[in-house]
Amino acid sequence: xxxxxxxxxxxxxxxxxxxxxxxxxxxxxxxxxxxxxxxxxxxxxxxxxxxxxxxxxxxxxxxxxxxxxxxxxxxxxxxxxxxxxxxxxxxxxxxxxxxxxxxxxxxxxxxxxxxxxxxxxxxxxxxxxxxxxxxxxxxxxxxxxxxxxxxxxxxxxxxxxxxxxxxxxxxxxxxxxxxxxxxxxxxxxxxxxxxxxxxxxxxxxxxxxxxxxxxxxxxxxxxxxxxxxxxxxxxxxxxxxxxxxxxxxxxxxxxxxxxxxxxxxxxxxxxx
Amino acid sequence: xxxxxxxxxxxxxxxxxxxxxxxxxxxxxxxxxxxxxxxxxxxxxxxxxxxxxxxxxxxxxxxxxxxxxxxxxxxxxxxxxxxxxxxxxxxxxxxxxxxxxxxxxxxxxxxxxxxxxxxxxxxxxxxxxxxxxxxxxxxxxxxxxxxxxxxxxxxxxxxxxxxxxxxxxxxxxxxxxxxxxxxxxxxxxxxxxxxxxxxxxxxxxxxxxxxxxxxxxxxxxxxxxxxxxxxxxxxxxxxxxxxxxxxxxxxxxxxxxxxxxxxxxxxxxxxx
Lengths: 272, 272
Hints:
The structure is a homodimer.
Chain A: H1 5-65, H2 69-105, H3 107-136, H4 142-209, H5 213-227, H6 232-256, H7 260-271
Helix pairs in contact in A: 1-2, 1-3, 1-4, 2-4, 3-4, 5-6
């Protein structure tokens, strides 16, 4: 061959670089693809958890309707707070989708474009080699032309190596920055949810603590003893009075012992 | 009928009470059954979420192996911290099972026993009514015996009402106390998990922040330029030196920038 040793070295280095970038793209495709699939599945499972607690909320509200005032308020408050936490979980799901899953999904296209770019470089390179061969087959002033062409080919090969190196470096840098960004978003979204859930539940716990079964026992016992054995009509009226009285009590009670969710909604309304 | 008016009233009130307790047991069976099913399902979905993040941890560790030192450490640390949060989630799942789902499951048996108790009371009552009838059919000193028996039946009915009332009250009180306890446990278990997750992730976030893609770019560029174009053997040796050097660097780096999980494990080991 008439090509100079550094051109040969360049071509050999170019092949190594080609293999390297192919390996890097293959790894990225595999790793980012798996991250995307797993995080998308995590997001879906989180949404299912939200739906399950929404079902628990509905069950608690049904339950509260069969209970006396104290537990009726207590269970309703619990349900409202659980529902509020699910609002935060819903925000978590939406943020995971837009800030974590979607950017990772985009990597399929990014890798496809990089592959196209390196394929273009390879095709260009092959055309130049072909051109060099054609000129070498020309017998006139063969040695001189060969020298010039070999220099051109060498410079070309060097430029091509530099381009591929830059492509690798750019892709790697961008990939690492993007992976870092995606997981910073992931951690932020998770922390935000945990913080909000903690904020709500610490209030809910306080509300649960003051729920007093004895109050409902007394409420029921009063109903029974005021009604007494003096005929149904009188008993019914007594029950009605008691109910009216207890509704006022409930309203007062409700004013004092609101769910965190309702207090939160009122604060938000005030601010808007 | 020879029964006195208050006995009739007692019997009528007893029927109302019987209906009431039947309704209470029916509601409890439905409400606590639904709570149990929903919370068991929530627990299973939480376990699935744990499994999904465990898969993410494995993917991150695979990923870290294809990266240069800076991101290799960064991704490994992230994986370890995510794994630690899943340990907490596993504890959450186990606590939900023993402290929330199991006590609610026990309600099926509690309600069955209450039903048996009221069925026993009813049978007893019917036997006494039968006995009264037999005695009334005896013609000798009919009026007097009837009086005595009616008094007995009335006292009996009153006692029976009292027993049923107590049964209702005890069951209701116990049910409310148990529901309160179960949800206090639920909130506690959830809060514990959120607190721990927040503790880990705030450290993880700090570790993510210092991950610097440029360091890996420089690491790679050094590898390339030290190797230069001076033949493969020399390049390989340079790479080997570089790798040895970088391993030492990595060890140092690792010492400084450990995952929260590893720091946590070391602290725990020290305390034990």
